[in-house]
Specification:
59% helix; alpha+beta; two-stranded antiparallel sheet
Length: 80
Protein backbone atom coordinates (compact mmCIF):
# COMPACT_ATOMS: atom_id res chain seq x y z
CA UNK A 1 0.00 0.00 0.00
CA UNK A 2 1.39 3.35 -0.94
CA UNK A 3 1.63 6.21 1.53
CA UNK A 4 -0.49 8.41 -0.74
CA UNK A 5 -3.59 6.23 -0.30
CA UNK A 6 -3.69 6.72 3.48
CA UNK A 7 -4.47 4.36 6.34
CA UNK A 8 -7.90 3.23 5.06
CA UNK A 9 -8.91 3.10 1.44
CA UNK A 10 -12.04 2.13 -0.39
CA UNK A 11 -15.61 1.77 0.84
CA UNK A 12 -14.84 -0.36 3.90
CA UNK A 13 -12.14 2.00 5.09
CA UNK A 14 -14.48 4.95 4.70
CA UNK A 15 -17.27 3.20 6.62
CA UNK A 16 -14.82 2.24 9.37
CA UNK A 17 -13.85 5.91 9.73
CA UNK A 18 -17.50 6.99 9.69
CA UNK A 19 -18.56 4.78 12.61
CA UNK A 20 -15.32 4.90 14.58
CA UNK A 21 -16.78 6.55 17.71
CA UNK A 22 -20.04 6.10 19.66
CA UNK A 23 -20.90 9.75 19.01
CA UNK A 24 -20.69 9.23 15.27
CA UNK A 25 -22.82 6.09 15.48
CA UNK A 26 -25.44 7.98 17.49
CA UNK A 27 -25.32 10.86 15.00
CA UNK A 28 -25.77 8.47 12.08
CA UNK A 29 -28.75 6.79 13.79
CA UNK A 30 -30.36 10.19 14.52
CA UNK A 31 -29.81 11.24 10.91
CA UNK A 32 -31.53 8.09 9.60
CA UNK A 33 -34.41 8.56 12.06
CA UNK A 34 -34.79 12.19 10.95
CA UNK A 35 -35.00 11.08 7.31
CA UNK A 36 -37.64 8.48 8.19
CA UNK A 37 -39.59 11.14 10.13
CA UNK A 38 -39.49 13.53 7.17
CA UNK A 39 -40.62 10.94 4.64
CA UNK A 40 -43.45 9.76 6.91
CA UNK A 41 -44.78 13.33 7.39
CA UNK A 42 -44.86 14.74 3.86
CA UNK A 43 -48.60 15.55 3.79
CA UNK A 44 -49.66 19.19 3.55
CA UNK A 45 -51.30 20.81 6.60
CA UNK A 46 -52.94 24.17 7.10
CA UNK A 47 -51.36 26.35 9.79
CA UNK A 48 -53.35 29.31 11.07
CA UNK A 49 -51.99 32.09 13.29
CA UNK A 50 -54.46 34.87 14.04
CA UNK A 51 -55.40 36.15 10.58
CA UNK A 52 -52.85 34.33 8.42
CA UNK A 53 -53.12 30.81 7.09
CA UNK A 54 -50.41 28.94 5.22
CA UNK A 55 -50.17 25.42 3.84
CA UNK A 56 -46.91 23.54 4.30
CA UNK A 57 -45.59 20.01 4.84
CA UNK A 58 -46.12 18.73 8.38
CA UNK A 59 -42.42 17.99 8.88
CA UNK A 60 -41.54 21.60 8.06
CA UNK A 61 -44.11 22.95 10.53
CA UNK A 62 -42.76 20.65 13.27
CA UNK A 63 -39.17 21.61 12.46
CA UNK A 64 -40.07 25.29 12.67
CA UNK A 65 -41.72 24.84 16.06
CA UNK A 66 -38.70 22.86 17.28
CA UNK A 67 -36.42 25.73 16.30
CA UNK A 68 -38.72 28.23 18.06
CA UNK A 69 -38.69 26.03 21.17
CA UNK A 70 -34.89 25.72 21.11
CA UNK A 71 -34.53 29.50 20.79
CA UNK A 72 -36.92 30.07 23.71
CA UNK A 73 -34.99 27.58 25.82
CA UNK A 74 -31.69 29.22 24.92
CA UNK A 75 -33.02 32.65 25.88
CA UNK A 76 -34.51 31.45 29.17
CA UNK A 77 -31.51 29.43 30.33
CA UNK A 78 -28.57 31.43 29.05
CA UNK A 79 -25.85 32.39 31.51
CA UNK A 80 -25.10 36.04 32.16
Amino acid sequence: MSAARGKHSGFRGGMRDLVSTPGRVAGLILFVLALIFIFENMQQVGIRLLFWEVTMPLWLALLGMGVVGALCGALLFRRH
